[in-house]
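Aggregate trends can hide what the representation actually does to any particular protein. For completeness, the protein is quoted in full, as a sequence line and a line of structure tokens.
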Amino acid sequence: MCRTVLGVLWQSKSMHSARSRPEPQARRVGDYSPSTVPLNTRMPRSGAELPKRRAAGAIRSLAVMLEDWLPAFSGGPAPGVPTLRDGLRVQLVIDAARRSSAGAGWVPIG
């Protein structure tokens, strides 16, 4: 069973190198040593060359996200893309958490 992740730690391989890339690391509740989270290296299917500058990662991420969403724009299925039903479920969980935090104790979701 997967437990809640406490957070993401950004640690550099070399603290002395200004150009070293940070490696995201995460810990699960009860774990004392973080494990490295693999980064997604998927490239856009178009094969277009990305600019060689700092924003290339953001541009790649946006292009890949839009490729995933594109079928939904034409009415097709888009696996992995959140739906309105997913958004409603998230809001119900947040509302239940707020009621619980306000002193209601354990509350049903929904």
